Amino acid sequence: MLEILRVRRSIRRYKDRQIEEEKMEQLKEAALRAPSSRGINPWRFVFVTDKTMLEKLSSSKESGSSFLKDAALGVVVAAKQGESDVWVEDCSIAAIILQLAGCSLGLGSCWIQIRNRRHSSSMSAEDYVKQTLALPHDFLVECIISLGYPDEDKRPVDFADLDWDKAVTWGMH
Description:
Elements: H1 2-7, H2 21-32, E1 43-48, H3 51-57, E2 73-80, H4 87-104, E3 108-113, E4 118-120, E5 123-124, H5 125-133, E6 139-148
Antiparallel strand pairs: 1-2, 2-6, 3-6, 4-5
């Protein structure tokens, strides 16, 4: 696990290559195994592989989502309204589990924030995603995770460059 954390980077350029069905199923399993508060599992995952739909979703927000059009997969991470008061946390945990599972399968990924972002001056990114995918009105969209085979090589952050001042131990002698 630590090695996956060391090498995982945000990937925004992807090869024109589909993700194998076996890997897609492993990604679904990983998402569904994500922990959630009180075991409520309020999250819903919409796996999008259709290139036309990925192109539409790539304009979900004003900036920072255009690379989705070149990904093999976009996973919309949402929750059903009213199922949990901590749906944001549960969906965030599931989203990073997807990214780490993807890394373990040789895939690159990047988080596309949707919640609290704008599609345009007259529409939220969340409403745009819900409208584009015809999602139920009671879905709350946290993010989209883009996944695919990386077409860029990013070096891990060096151990010495980690901000160790942000991880203090209290109570050590």
